Amino acid sequence: MEQAMNIQPATQAFIDRAHKMWINGQWVDARSGQSMTLRNPATAEILCEVPKGNKEDVDLAVQAARRAFDDSAWSRMRPRERQNLLWRLADLMERDADQLAELECINNGKSVTMARVVDVQLCIDFMRYMAGWATKIQGETVEVSMPLMPQAQFHSFIRREAVGVVGAIVAWNFPLLLACWKLGPALATGCTVVLKPADETPLTALRLAELVAEAGYPEGVFNVVTGSGAEAGAALSSHPDVDKLTFTGSTEVGKLIGKAAMDSMTRITLELGGKSPTIVLDDADPAAAAAGAAGAIFFNHGQVCCAGSRLYVHKKHFDNVVGDIASIANKMKLGSGLDPATDMGPLISEKQQRRVTGYIEQGRSTGLEIACGGSSEGPGYFVKPTVMVSTDHKNPLVQEEIFGPVLVAMPFSDVDEVIRMANDSCYGLAASIWTNNLSAAHRMIPRIRAGSVWINCHSVLDPAVPFGGHKLSGFGREMGAAAISYYTEMKSVVMSV
Ligand code: NAP
Ligand code: MG
3-state SS string over 9-77? Predict the structure, then answer.
């Protein structure tokens, strides 16, 4: 597949530099001297090397974050100054937005245009939204009813204090955005952070570290350790000096991190996998619903935790909607994310390509009908947008998170049946309902077990709207006021006055 490689010279220079990790305000090599190789998913060619940090490097980073939290100017900084620093960081991200988008495109494979207007723009907006929160973190006063000591007078109040050192571990599907969802509330509340990006996609995290330094944050407030999940990630999640862990990735690893956190009672939020239903009711406009359902699964090549990967269409519209999605999929041009003509880029890695094609083969061999796609392409890690039809709700393709451009469609006859099927999942991250009947939508919303429900849209995420899952999709919320609560601890004070 031909690649258009027209990126800015400064972006190329960044990729080509000798990469180091950002610990305690300095660029450092891994103590072991080891490195890992990054590949361009669109070509499978080697991109660059980054340090492979391990437990020793994580220790240094956590110590730096601990010192910054406990003793530095950072802990004494007033909310207004934290607000201004976050705003400054957002301005720098805006200044370098095209470069951040190019790095995300080259490292992850996603479209540079989408990276600019979705990933990077959401990061900028989110940092500004969180800058606003820095000056609005409030406690409460409480009237005390103590029955003893009737002569005594009490004054009681509850403080909201920064939770401390945050260990953030993120996935590769939205590398910069997932990092910012952790960094924004941490910096707004006065926490310090050690970030472990996914081994596949550390480049924007390293560039972010430069911008954090340029914005003027004190040393140790933000640290980036590149390395593998098994070594650096595990060391961070079991580190006794980390006060809170925040993770985005698979349910499987989320469980490991949750267990490690429990040993030291580390606070934790987990944003995990999903198998989100898209539901098309009988009164919906079938063409609009088909376009929406295609976007719900094919955006970011299906590598989205809240992707609409299960499609339930009322039997009246089933053939039309599935046919329309298949024709949208068949017209999609696969290619490099740098090429403006590309509709879908590669998956993140050969491993992910094998995983997704493995699921497609399993679907084929268990009797699912293939409406379109169903094959891979090289030399990059491409998989054609695929729609399969199932009548067996227990089939693994209906139940398991595939994390690729694979949609499984099923017909239904009535609302009770589709709600039963939508909730027949170990996940509960999100759902969308396509309908023109307002009361049908309102009646269904409380019955769907998911953290987000969208009506006539899908994957609409906003800095002010909390996002997170029920069931195996995790716990805690990203974004909104909810995020602030997860980066603060309550301290109850009672004074005898
Ligand atoms: P993953 O293993 O859950 O990776 C997510 C993050 O956790 C990465 O930074 C990873 O580091 C780290 N990690 C891995 N093992 C760890 C451990 N034992 N302790 C601490 N951290 C650890 O996800 P993946 O392997 O990249 O993808 C596998 C599947 O996960 C996908 O196919 C998809 O189903 C699901 N997934 C879901 C989401 C989501 O947003 N819900 C995002 C990505 C993937 P390394 O990358 O360096 O190993
Ligand atoms: Mg990985």
Answer: HHHHHHHHCCCCEEECCEEECCCCCCEEEEEECCCCEEEEEEECECHHHHHHHHHHHHHHHHHCHHHHC
pLDDT of residue 238: 98
DSSP character for 230? I
Distance 171 CA to ligand 1 centre (A): 5
Residue 486 Cα to ligand 1 midpoint, Å, equals: 22
Query: Count of residues for the chain?
Result: 497
pLDDT at 255: 98
Find how far residue 72's CA is from the centre of its chain.
Answer: 30
What are 333-368's pLDDT values in tens digits? Answer: 999 999 999 999 999 999 999 999 999 999 999 999
In terms of phi and psi (left: phi > 0; alpha: psi -120 to 50; beta: otherwise), the region of 149 is: left
| Ligand 1 midpoint to CA 183 (Å) | 19
Which residue among the candidates 271, 306, 372, 478 is catalytic per the annotation? 271
**3 state SS of 99:** helix
Which of 250, 252, 350, 356 best tests ligand 1's pocket when mutated (most atoms within 8 Å of CB)?
Answer: 250
Ligand 1 binding pocket (C-beta < 6 A) is: 169-173, 196, 198-200, 228-230, 233-234, 237, 248-250, 253, 256-257, 272-273, 305, 355, 401, 403
Beta bridge partners of 277: 310
